[in-house]
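Feature request, filed as a ticket because there's no other form

It would be nice if the structure record came with a short human-readable summary line next to the tokens. Right now we just get the raw output. Example of a typical job, pasted below so the devs can see what we mean:
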Amino acid sequence: MEAKATIEDLEARWAQIEPSPQDNGSVALIARRPAPDQRELLDRATFTAEAGLLGDDWLRRHGDDIEAQITLMNSRVIQLLAGDKSRWAEAGDQLFVDLDISQHNLPPGARLQLGGVVMEISKRPHTGCTKFARRYGGHARKWTATETGERQRRRGVYAFVVQDGEVKVGDRIRKL
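Raw output as currently delivered:
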């Protein structure tokens, strides 16, 4: 996405994109963050209730804040903002999913099955940070933070693991 895109440009482009499914979505990308500003793209990953994504630095950064254990971002949103898939992981999220993650479709407490893992949607809001704005532009951050952007959770959603297991790129995501 070019840095000069305005909120209006982003909104117009977003209106042209077909919505993600409300159920039976899929895992598009898995990114592990082993250390600050480092990303590893994985074909498969193990998630546990104790550690979140194994090998991720969530525990070091957040301690026992279970509400911020895992972040999911809609793959159609990040495609709009980042373009090339090689830039998706810069957002800092661990899972990029083709699923409607809006507040309406997945209220806090909703559960999802991703491969062999069950996660619960957190009540904690996921908002953009200065790193997100630096990587994708200030307009991208503002666009995700509009009232509509927050309802649609364009910046993503926090979740936590309630059943350990493995997730692979391409796995189906099912609402429970």
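Something like this underneath would help us a lot:
The first helix runs from residue 7 to 15.
The CA atoms of residues 44 and 168 lie 4 Å apart.
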